[in-house]
Amino acid sequence: MRAVLMAGGAGTRLRPLTCDLPKPMVPIVNQPIAAHIIHLLRRHNITEVVATLHYLPDAMRDYFLDGSEFGVQMTYAVEDEHPLGTAGCVKNIEELLDDTFLVISGDSITDFNLTAAIAFHKQKQAKATLILTKVPNPLEFGVVITDENQRVQRFLEKPSTSEVFSDTVNTGTYILEPEVLTYLPPKEEMDFSKDLFPLLLENGEPMYGFVADGYWCDVGNLDAYREAQYDALEKKVSLELGNLPRHSDIWIGEHTTIDPSAVLIPPLAIGDNCNIGPGTRLEAGTIIGDNVTIGAGAELKRAIIWNGVLIGDEAYLAACVVGRGCRVERRVQILEGAVIGPLCIIGEEAQINSNVKVWPSKRVEPGAILNINLIWGSTGHRNLFGQRGVSGIVNIDMTPEFAVKLGAAYGSSLKPGAEIVVSRDQRNVSRMVTRSLIAGLMSVGVNIQNLEATAIPIARTMTPKLKVAGGIHVRIHPDRPDYLLIEFLDSQGINISKKTEKKIEGAYFKEDLRRVSIPQIGDMSYPAQVLETYCHTFEKLLDMDTINSDGAKIVIDYAYGVSGAILPLLLTKFGCDAVVLNASLRQTAVSNEEKEVLLSQLGQVVSALQANLGVQVSANGEQLTLVDEGGLPIRGELLTALMVHMMLTASPRGTIVVPVQASSAVEQLARRHGGKVLRTKANPTALMAAAQSSHNVVLGGSGETGFIFPRLHPGFDAMFCIAKIMEMLTVQGRTLGEVRAELPTVYHNSCTVRCSWKIKGALMRHLVEIHRDQHIELVDGVKVTFANADNWVLILPDAGEPLVHIYANSENRHWVDDKLRHYQAQVLNFISDAQEESYQHFA
Question: Which of 63, 219, 391, 515 is deepest in the core (most CB within 10 A)?
């Protein structure tokens, strides 16, 4: 007799184990399900097998080849186009089936007596015999009812509770005569239970049910997958376990080394070429594949480990599944029901909580606590917060469900009944995520003052004025147009401290979320006169009469981002003639390349209109690039120097706050005006905090981050900056071009090197050690100052990416170029040596 093995399934309910493996090839006690089926067929003298394949067909063909090693003759039929269904794929090989044949599902474990079933079929002279079994809960299966002669009278595929009329179910194993296939049309998707069997019943064909004794498990989901493994170890099903020798209910493969101090509690199975370290404890139900290494002191309880896995010292794994080729590092905890897909790396001391699924080829950072499935992103993070808030890829990292939980975590860090402001940019994705954040906040009893769509400088202004506990602003990331950025503000409108970030992360990762009763659920209101309040604050800090008397012309490019409703309204009050470009909202963010094109166009318009200046506004009203009256752009370090020069001219002896990497032109200008320079860490929060807390600060920030005017509000504000520039140009009687010409000549350049997170700390220590005899500053990174105070090099690790930035500054261009080359080579050599040492240690 010939058997048809239906092996086309993708096994979607077994994800993430079947992303790169068809369901019949998923291992049960270190052998694929299909191999156990082949063993069963051979035991009952069925040695001709045709496998129907669709999903990843090469996996099965490469494993079984011609079947000779398994004592059978294997042939394969691949559904090249679309799936044909359980019956359609058999119809597709009709020419191979010229006698009674058996059809068996490729995703079940059984030890049924097929010989008895075939004898029953022949005795009844049936056209079709369904092998049936009795199960406690038939809701997930096709229920079948037979008469006293076992002839099928009725069946129902996956009934509801009210429709259950029997506990006898279809196992997906059939004995058929070839003529039944004539009822099926060719090349169409057809199913045995839904299509063929109703036709046979309708036409009175003899169809019988053979109720089989023995074990049967449909490996349809992850719970069933684990149960089938445990049942096999406990001998509830008769399986051939291949070459695994048996020793008192402990199966140990060939060339496997087990330390004498390891504790093994039967029943369990260990594959070939494994290395079990000292002090390891393997408890009953544990199944370990081939080529697995388990470190010292690890503890495994009913864990299922696939081939090629490395498990570090003192790891704890309980009733979980770890896929092929994973690396589970030291002191990792993987709890009950968790599933780790193939080729993942679980970092040291990470914790994968119960029932969490990690898709293939993901990396979970050391110390991370994973409470939710890791599907789309590439990394499970230890921290939620980056350099300036929480960010991630839209609808992959930053999903509505993520935002609900994040909102609840933030709200749980506040007192019940606390009030916060919530605002966003005008894009649809920001609206979507903001609504989810609000739902999470309200669920923990936090009240919302909803500013809706507005620029972040307005949100920072309103936060202290509304006397709230803090705020959230959601927008497209200013540096990455495919990312969303969520910023959290304190009661003064400054980005929250690291201490508060850690508190929110703790609530999020530990799921320590407050839940309130219905009367305590948060409320939402919409403050009135928000724009008017901001404008009034704005106007009080400017010399309105001076600006009004000038009648300047300015060209503003919004780059399809910030709403055009705010700035022209303000500039009209100042008597400025504002020409607006690209003010319409676009849902997709403008790329850096597009911004350059728009900036070039802005320069042309400024020149053509003979305007006083042009400005491109970005980052939801925080950042700007200037264009002088000649159409030339002013940005980066040049823009920083220009703003410092103008502000210190207007306010001599003032204090300027800049990030550590800003050029030395700032100090030169401060000396010229009797001012003071305060350098801070490179992150925006440090700039805001220093600008707010230090004495007599007139300006903070840089051309890269935007500029802070502490008397206005604590954040970056491009809109006020434009108005302030107009005021200063009028009072000082100069053009931008003339101010630019007065700036000192300083050469400032940088480069970036990729550097693993694990190497960054060692690199910084190395740099400090080799520069002990030189003047170094450790404000942020390592800054080495040479004989001339304007000659320095800064090596600055990136806070959010595995990168290191190298800056060089001098009045001599050649010195800058030489130092950049030298330090880039030095950093690269150190990284290369550290990686080689790490590799040798691992090997």
Answer: 219
Name the strand (E) or helix (H) holding 74.
strand 73-78
Tokens of 731: 């009072």
- Please classify residue 492 by burial: count the beta carbons closer than 10 Å to its beta carbon, then call 0-12 exposed, 13-18 middle and 19+ buried: middle
* Nearest Cα to Cα of residue 490 among 413, 375, 433, 567: 413
CA distance 671 to 655: 11
Residue 480: what residue type?
Answer: R
3-state secondary structure of 54: coil
Are 8 and 55 spatial neighbours (Cβ–Cβ below 8 Å)? yes
What one-letter code names the amino acid at 682?
A
- Maximum distance among all Cα pairs of the chain, rounded to whole angstroms: 110
* Cα–Cα nearest to 103, from 90, 93, 113, 88: 90
**How much is the pLDDT for 158?**
54
Among 187-196, 655-664, 764-773, 832-841, the range of highest mean pLDDT: 655-664
Contacts (Cβ under 8 Å, ≥6 apart) of 356? 338, 339, 370, 371, 372, 373, 374
What does the pLDDT look like over 309-344, one tens digit per residue? 999 999 999 999 999 999 999 999 999 999 999 999
Between residues 664 and 566, the one the model is more confident about: 664
The model's pLDDT over 261-304, given as tens digits with 9 standing for 90+, comes to 999 999 999 999 999 999 999 999 999 999 999 999 999 999 99
- Cα dihedral sign, 490-496-500-501: positive
396-415 confidence digits (pLDDT tens): 788 899 999 999 999 999 99
pLDDT mean across residues, the chain: 89
Q: Do residues 748 and 663 touch, judged by C-beta distance below 8 A?
A: yes
Rounded alpha-carbon distances, angstroms, from residue 420 to 351, 417, 444, 445, 487: 32, 10, 13, 11, 13
Question: Cα–Cα distance between 319 and 810 in angstroms, integer?
Answer: 61
CB 142 within 8 A of CB 157: yes
- What digits encode the pLDDT tens for the residues 82-123? 778 889 999 989 999 999 999 999 889 999 999 999 999 999
Separation between Cα atoms, residue 128 and residue 197, nearest integer Å: 9
- Tokens for 634, please give them: 């002013």
CA distance 568 to 552: 13
Residue 837 CB neighbour total at 10 angstroms: 12
- Measured in degrees and rounded to the nearest 5, phi and psi for residue 482 equal -95, 5
| Residue 53 tokens, joined | 């394949």
CA distance 583 to 556: 9
3-state helix, strand, coil in the chain (%, to 5): 35, 25, 40
> Looking at residue 841, what is its pLDDT?
45
CA distance 618 to 626: 11
DSSP code of 628?
-
Q: What is the 3-state secondary structure (H, E, C) of 112-174?
A: CCHHHHHHHHHHHCCCEEEEEEECCCHHHCEEEEECCCCEEEEEEECCCHHHCCCCEEEEEEE
Helix (H, G, I), strand (E, B) or coil at 386: coil
C-alpha span between 422 and 177 (Å, rounded): 69
Task: Compute the average pLDDT of residues 600-607.
Answer: 95
- Beta pairing partners, 345: 327, 363
Phi and psi at residue 597, to the nearest 5°: -65, -45
Which segment of 239-253, 339-353, 399-413, 653-667 scores lowest on mean pLDDT?
A: 239-253
Q: What is the pLDDT of residue 599?
A: 95
pLDDT of 701? 96
Distance CA 141, CA 159 (A): 8
Dihedral-angle region of residue 3 (phi above 0 means left; psi in -120 to 50 means alpha; beta otherwise): beta
Burial class of residue 749 in the structure, from the number of CB atoms within 10 Å of its CB (0-12 exposed, 13-18 middle, 19+ buried):
middle
The conformation of residue 14, written as its DSSP 8-state character, comes to G
Q: Which two tokens stand for residue 179?
A: 């003529």
